[in-house]
Model the fold of this input.
Amino acid sequence: MYESVVFDVDGVLLRPHADHPDVYRDAVVTAFQSFDVTPPASDVEAFFGGASKSLDSMRQVCERHGVDFESFWPKRERESANLQRRMMERRERDLYDDCAVVATLAETHDLGLVSNNQHATVEFMVDHFGLDDHFETAYGRSPTIEGYRRTKPDTHYIERALEDLGTRSALYVGDSASDVVAAHRAGLDSAFVWRDHRNDYELSEEPTHEIDRLTQLADLVADG
Done:
């Protein structure tokens, strides 16, 4: 039996935006406009699409436009967090229906959150959807370049969550290859959720468990 369950956020608890990932271009464009720069679409591509994007390619785009990358980065992070906050306020991003199982799991297990998204976005989600009482710890990436480097599959934030929870007996629940790799690097079992947006998705490592809905976790954590 696992003592704790640690969840990814995007695509696991929180539904993607209907226009994901295109909608996140707005945050990048707005950040550049604060420097009086309107980048072409080809340059914006370097910045959106999740934490797999290369920092070197993003830095090179900024250099081409005469923008200091270290100054640009916190603006980009702030704009992205603000954009996602508005999405949740307008219910353009909402919780999956099966997230109701979180309340049940919290009665018997200590729960945590570890996301590659901005920490401000994770904090807002927890507060906005009234999840504060269910999670003992929550981490998103800090709004710094180093914070981005430490996103999954790096284990940095997972290790911090485990330290807070005071256990190594934890199951990590995610919906991406980086989630599975990070869990295994941290010595944890993984549960991969096959959401609709993961049709035909390929995993680089086999997860410990595969589920279709979070409600399956109730039995899984008891049998783990």
Remarks:
- The chain has two domains: 4-16+93-223, 22-89.
- The radius of gyration is 18 Å.
